[in-house]
Amino acid sequence: MKITHLSFLVLFLTLSSCYTFSKPEKPENLISEEKMVNVLVDMAIMSASKGVNKKKLEDSGIVPAEYIYKRNNIDSITFAESNAYYAFDIQTYNGIYKRVKDSLFVIREKYRVVDKKEKEERAEKKSKGKVNNREKHSQEDLDKLKNNSKLQDGKAGKIEPEIKD
Hints:
- By secondary structure, the protein is mainly alpha-helical.
- The chain has one domain (24-145).
- The chain is built from five helices and no strands.
- It has helices at 2-18, 33-59, 64-71, 76-88, 90-154.
């Protein structure tokens, strides 16, 4: 029993050691490196959006993979072939992913600036709203005081405080 297992193991190791990886052939419709960067950036953003609010994507009828392929005018086979081709050359693939990372960093910083500006505007509106409410309440309080003093002054001039004996 041990001899059969050992012989299968030796046979398997011999066959697997003879197998060599060959570079995939260049696809006819190879996606350019620049377009590949764009596709991978879109995929990263879509993946993040699915993580944040998947329900919103489903409700809007967006199928992430289809959306990305349509947006970049490619199909899934073209992407898979191009991805396999670029992935075989690790230096090229690392270069592509470095550009993807840089692009995502630029996009993130752009949205951080927008988010910061929106927060400042909301805080400014909120503080103006409080000031306006204070002014509004102050004006209302003054109007009430005036109305009360008019009522008190109205019939008999000034109302004198009653003095009880």
